[in-house]
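User: Can you predict the 3D structure for this chain?
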Amino acid sequence: MDMVGGGPETKAVFHVTRGPMSLPSFVHDVAWAFAEWVNEESYKFAATGKADYPMVAPEGGKEPLRAEYSAYTMGSDHDVYQDSSFGIPAIYLNDWPDRYIHTNFDSAANIDPTKLKRAAFIGAASGYFLAQMQSHDFDAVNFAVLQGSAFRQSAWAIGSLSVTQDDRCSSWEFKSQYEVATHHSFPRLAPRPSDAVDPRPPMGCLYPPPRYSDGPFFRRAREPKGPPAVFGYDYFVDHAKAAGVPTPRLLSYEGLWGGGEEYAYEVLNFADGKRNAQEIRDAVSAEYGPVPLEIVVEYLKALEKTGLLVEVK
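Assistant: Here is the predicted structure, written as structure tokens:
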């Protein structure tokens, strides 16, 4: 949780934020299932004065929660957990934007006890459910993931209108793989029944883009672990000058749905020794918008020179 509980005066929107697409996981859909339930119950209470579970604190507001299910955003501790060197799915609950954050008006007086109570419930209920998951929970989790998949596919369909046919096709191919991986991420905790079927993949293309099997291929070095940039320190910047590496263009690139920081985070995460540069480019393009291949290759080679990546021969 980060800056949750902001009252109406902060103009903050409460988000249940999904993880990066380099780490498909069902846990975010579980969290959203609880958040959506709180949305519905709190709206009933706000609209009618009656609800089975209004989730209202005695000294708090009576407004509905209106939580949003949002794509991955950076800026808190969840970046470290979900980095590829750790690969721990994290549920990120946050208020954004908050007009008072990090100002002299950022005080406890702006907290709405009702909103804080609801955020705490979503976090606690999600954690408790995940810790207690058993085989009889498979259907409930599967339903939550199917709902999440429908939500994502709707957003992706709208976004696909902004890109070329080739990028649309490679994007849908990657997102199909993402959805299947998300569905396969929970049987370890809730064993999969023998009659379970894979989700129907998102819409595809009549003429898929060509596959590229040639390199270069890169994987993470064993050390250092974690994202290169954290609060107050940037490993890449610290080592690039000594290695004679100019600032890669990717770090200042602005895509349709993300900027240099997001692209850089995911390029490193996708470098698993199995994806080549073209496939990494297609993956980050699907997530944040098309980016030229040469910019991605330049950044991969810069990461290699600074010791973050190793080329797989």
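The first helix runs from residue 27 to 48. The chain has a mean pLDDT of 92.
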